[in-house]
């Protein structure tokens, strides 16, 4: 998203004896003060926050609803009112007016120093439901000595105003192709103008148009196929007044400056013919203030579109994306608006055969909206991939299991930056993070990885231009099981001239969105390295589907090794061992190979440079240059 708000640094926090500055993309959530504020808010009042178990409900499973009651609310009764027919639930004091009831039991009462008071945990059980059932519910709490009710999470006093929660009961799995994907993320305006175009336009500022087109992407499909990517993620392409397109004016018309609808159809067909899938960047939370529905609503108070936006004081005051006036927020709790937005997304899947969506600012619309969105899209094509942008902590990201197929892994991106680019953390922090994250999320929930994107400083700039660090980070990224994303230009050395975060606290993201490098301007050595990584990943399914095991970790020397082992027979025959020297010194490293276990004298070969190493007494000894990594597998006989 064109994010003008996230960022501004933040207060440093301490980790392992080091002060670690906040990554601006999290807007302070990853600082001590930000985390305390968020946790304190979550523990006050009646808080549910979509905390259910299992997170992704299947037919025949009961579903537990978990609720926190803070010390600011006295409650001795909790009930949920739920429906299974898509209607809104309604009820009061334990009696359902619309739907069914669930009574909660108090699970525990705990003293919490963060709020300096007691908080209670309550649990209610919704019985098993049939495949395809949408369960929609609200949660009420009250004290029998009083006459006031509180509904989670907005603390409304009546069920008509209560926050609606929902989940979908189904057996749908994440599309099988997602785990094998190598995704290339490009901004259409900044990628390529086309072979028949003289060159880039020269706008008066970086915020202007540089002239990239859909024809330009078509002309470079051979380049992308040769690079080895399997999926293209395109920036918003609809009519919009900006270069980035996150302020959409018309969801049905592709901007003429890009080539229009017919050209996009040709691009989809050409990409599919080369085995490349297409993911679009869809914005459900807000539109441009030039959208005709918003103009109608702002001009005429009695307009049919008056309820489509969230006016707080018509016509000049309304909810918008982080207060940015030219990004007014849709009222997605209003059924006609919700249907319109979802219908637009469904149409592109049905009519153009696109393969998925990267969903912008998922935190804006409710979980209830995303349940409807997912159900509608999957009915057209269950293999449509839905990946969310959720810039938050792991607990919130996990709450989208069952609503989406996965979320972009901002948490890993931050850790990789801190270990390989800024070097404020060592490899032990990365290993600890990976171990815990692998246990936290379901293996069916996809977490695509990335080193940089359009809303943050480029990795190469953060690494002060050191391409060895970029290579090492990419080696790590491409040898982890989740699908990797390459941000356009990273593979050829495209960087930036200045920090996107300025002293005014705002993000000037255009500095990380400069035009793609072509021809002699490309770093051919780096490009060949990325081609090699893509080929290695495609040819070794254990990298995409294997189980990661830590083999070696030396925090003092900043060396690290892990193995990827197959979960099944097909993958298990070809273990991969990754060894990393993240220090600025030559390191001699001894790695124990139990597990995965290699017979004596087994020869392991580096898939990067072809060098061979021999296993002795279940150990491997080797010497790595500064900032060098190897990807080892059994040498061919």
From TrEMBL:
Pfam family, one: Alpha-amylase
InterPro entries assigned: GH, GH13_cat_dom, Glyco_hydro_b
Domain Glycosyl hydrolase family 13 catalytic: 185-537
Segments for region (Disordered): 1-24
GO annotation, biological process: carbohydrate metabolic process
Superkingdom, taxonomy of origin: Bacteria
Gly residues: compositionally biased ranges: 1-11
Official protein name in the record: Cyclomaltodextrinase / maltogenic alpha-amylase / neopullulanase
């Amino acid at each position: 998203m064109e994010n003008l708000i996230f960022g501004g640094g933040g207060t440093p926090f301490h980790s392992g004896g080091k002060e670690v500055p906040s990554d601006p993309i999290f807007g302070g959530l990853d600082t001590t003060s930000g985390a305390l504020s968020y946790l304190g808010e979550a523990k006050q009042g009646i808080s549910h926050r979509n905390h259910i178990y299992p997170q992704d409900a299947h037919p025949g499973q009961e579903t537990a609803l978990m609720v926190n009651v803070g010390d600011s609310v006295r409650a001795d009764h909790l009930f949920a009112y739920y429906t299974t027919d898509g209607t809104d639930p309604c009820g009061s004091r334990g009696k359902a007016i619309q739907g069914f009831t669930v009574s909660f039991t108090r699970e525990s009462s705990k003293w919490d120093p963060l709020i300096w008071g007691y908080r209670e945990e309550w649990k209610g059980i919704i019985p098993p439901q049939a495949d395809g059932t949408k369960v929609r519910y609200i949660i009420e709490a009250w004290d029998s000595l009083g006459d006031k009710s509180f509904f989670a999470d907005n603390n409304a006093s009546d069920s008509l105003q209560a926050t609606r929660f929902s989940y979908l009961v189904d057996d749908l799995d994440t599309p099988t192709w997602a785990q094998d994907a190598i995704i290339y993320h490009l901004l259409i305006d900044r990628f390529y103008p086309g072979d028949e175009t003289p060159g880039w336009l020269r706008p008066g500022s970086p915020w202007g148009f540089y002239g990239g087109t859909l024809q330009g992407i078509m002309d470079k499909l051979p380049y992308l196929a040769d690079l080895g990517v399997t999926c293209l993620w395109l920036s918003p392409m609809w009519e919009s007044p900006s270069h980035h397109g996150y302020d959409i004016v018309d969801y049905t018309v592709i901007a003429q400056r890009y080539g229009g609808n017919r050209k996009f159809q040709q691009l989809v067909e050409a990409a599919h013919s080369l085995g490349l899938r297409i993911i679009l960047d869809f914005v459900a939370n807000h539109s441009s203030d030039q959208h005709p529905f918003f103009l109608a609503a702002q001009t005429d108070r009695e307009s049919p579109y008056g309820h489509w936006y969230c006016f707080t004081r018509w016509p000049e005051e309304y909810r918008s994306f982080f207060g940015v006036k030219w990004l007014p927020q849709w009222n997605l709790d209003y059924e006609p608006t919700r249907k319109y937005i979802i219908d637009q997304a469904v149409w592109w899947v049905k009519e153009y055969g696109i393969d998925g969506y990267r969903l912008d600012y998922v935190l804006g619309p409710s979980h209830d909206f995303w349940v409807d969105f997912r159900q509608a899209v999957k009915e057209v094509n269950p293999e449509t991939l839905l990946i969310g942008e959720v810039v938050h902590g792991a607990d919130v990201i996990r709450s989208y299991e069952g609503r989406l197929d996965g979320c972009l892994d901002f948490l890993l991106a931050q850790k990789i930056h801190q270990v390989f680019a800024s070097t404020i953390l060592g490899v032990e922090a990365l290993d600890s993070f990976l171990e815990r994250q692998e246990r936290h999320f379901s293996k069916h929930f996809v977490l695509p990885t990335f080193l940089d994107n359009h809303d943050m400083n480029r990795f190469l700039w953060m690494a002060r231009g050191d391409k060895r660090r970029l290579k090492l980070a990419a080696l790590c990224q491409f040898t982890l099981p989740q699908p990797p994303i390459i941000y356009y230009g990273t593979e050829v050395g495209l960087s930036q001239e200045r920090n996107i975060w300025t002293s005014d606290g705002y993000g000037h993201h255009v500095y990380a969105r400069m035009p793609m490098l072509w021809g002699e301007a490309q770093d051919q050595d780096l490009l060949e390295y990325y081609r090699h990584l893509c080929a290695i990943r495609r040819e070794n399914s254990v990298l995409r589907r294997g189980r990661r095991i830590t083999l070696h970790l030396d925090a003092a020397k900043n060396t690290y090794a892990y193995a990827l082992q197959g979960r099944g027979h097909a993958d298990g025959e070809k273990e991969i061992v990754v060894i990393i020297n993240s220090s600025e010194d030559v390191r001699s490293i001894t790695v124990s190979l139990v597990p995965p276990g290699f017979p004596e004298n087994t020869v392991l070969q580096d898939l990067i440079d072809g060098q061979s190493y021999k296993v002795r007494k279940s150990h491997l000894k080797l010497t790595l240059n500064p900032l060098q990594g190897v990807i080892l597998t059994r040498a061919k006989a």
